[in-house]
Amino acid sequence: MPKRRVHVAAAAILNEQGQVLIARRPATVDQGGLWEFPGGKLAPYETGLEALKRELCEELGIEITRAQPLIRIHHEYPDKHILLDVWETRQFSGEPFGREGQAVRWVEIADLYNYAFPAANLPILRAVALPREYLITPEEADEAIFETRLIRALDEDGVRLVQLRAKELDEAAYIARAEKALAICHARGARLLLNAEPAMLDKVDADGIHLTSVRLAELAEKGERPIPDNKWLSASTHDQQQLDQAGQVVCDFVSLSPLRVTPSHPERPPLGWHDFQSLVEQACMPVYALGGMSRHDSDHARAVGAQGIASIRDFWK
Ligand SMILES: Nc1nc2c([nH]c(=O)n2[C@H]2C[C@H](O)[C@@H](COP(=O)(O)OP(=O)(O)OP(=O)(O)O)O2)c(=O)[nH]1
Ligand SMILES: [Mg+2]
């Protein structure tokens, strides 16, 4: 018999302190006793957003006035195929409480990992913790210019996630730049990923590693995550096979490119939004759109299921 297909709308509800609301599923229901993002199944003919509004009113007594798509997750449970359609909302009226007697709690995003969630939820924990914009640094020979531009991107554009990509530097120069970039990022609450061998984390205590698609393919053969769980792991992907490989090495998120034709990779055919969306729909982690992207594309990227946009040029001025 084919598995039952269940479509669920759920929400990451954020307050002004940046905490997120979680609720405990009653012991007697499916996945009972585990924590969840409030929500429930779509009724026939309801859209995800309509179901979300109804469920949050029924379960928490709040009216949401605005919500944005956060991530969609397909997950196979032993008895059913579930589509979790997760939204992010910061705008609602009323004070949420457990209207069905369930425990509810505001928690820091960094503390979410201390709670037991259903197996499908891991990508949601990553998506709520990740920003909408991802800066990839360009080759920049001059250290002073590098520093000024990085600081500008963090202070003026509010960038909070940076990948240090500097293929033209030798190891000693890369490490020196990484130490400097790390101090600049951490002073502003931003995270820094190193585009380098995973072993580079032993030399620079950055927030994680970004794998090129070549490194990703090598590591996928071993099928294990190369760095600890408390560090971020991301990878460059261009197609379904590489997205699968990112799943095999348990990446926390990926970039998928090129969305448009770019001066840096004129030879690669662009994916365009349609193909991008179909790849993202099947991905099991947050995906950033890369390739000719700017912040103006952010809302559209989000609407087709992306975490947001990654860019070099838009943030480097
Ligand atoms: N709401 C919610 N459901 C989740 C999460 N993670 C996860 O695997 N699920 C699963 C558990 C359930 O099988 C299904 C949600 O169903 P539900 O029991 O909340 O549905 P509902 O609110 O419409 O409740 P009911 O009327 O069917 O009792 O999705 C999550 O974070 N939030
Ligand atoms: Mg529910």
From TrEMBL:
Enzyme class at the top of the EC tree: hydrolase
EC number(s) on file: 3.6.1.55
Keyword flag NAD: no
Nudix hydrolase domain location: 4-130
SUPFAM superfamilies per UniProt: Nudix, Thiamin phosphate synthase
Residues reported in the UniProt entry to bind 8-oxo-dGTP: R25, E36, F37, P38, G39, N121
Entry annotated with the keyword Nuclease: no
One Gene Ontology term from the biological process aspect of the record: DNA replication
Keyword list, A-Z: DNA damage, DNA repair, DNA replication, Hydrolase, Magnesium, Metal-binding, Mutator protein
Pfam name, any one: TMP-TENI
Annotated residues for binding of Mg(2+): G39, E59
UniProt cofactor(s): Mg(2+)
Catalytic activity line of the entry: 8-oxo-GTP + H2O = 8-oxo-GMP + diphosphate + H(+); 8-oxo-dGTP + H2O = 8-oxo-dGMP + diphosphate + H(+)
An annotated Gene Ontology molecular function: 8-oxo-7,8-dihydrodeoxyguanosine triphosphate pyrophosphatase activity
Family from the record: Belongs to the Nudix hydrolase family.
NCBIfam families: mutt, PRK08999.1
PANTHER family for this protein: 8-OXO-DGTP DIPHOSPHATASE (PTHR47707), NUDIX HYDROLASE FAMILY PROTEIN (PTHR47707:SF1)
Name this protein carries in UniProt: 8-oxo-dGTP diphosphatase
Source organism: Cobetia crustatorum
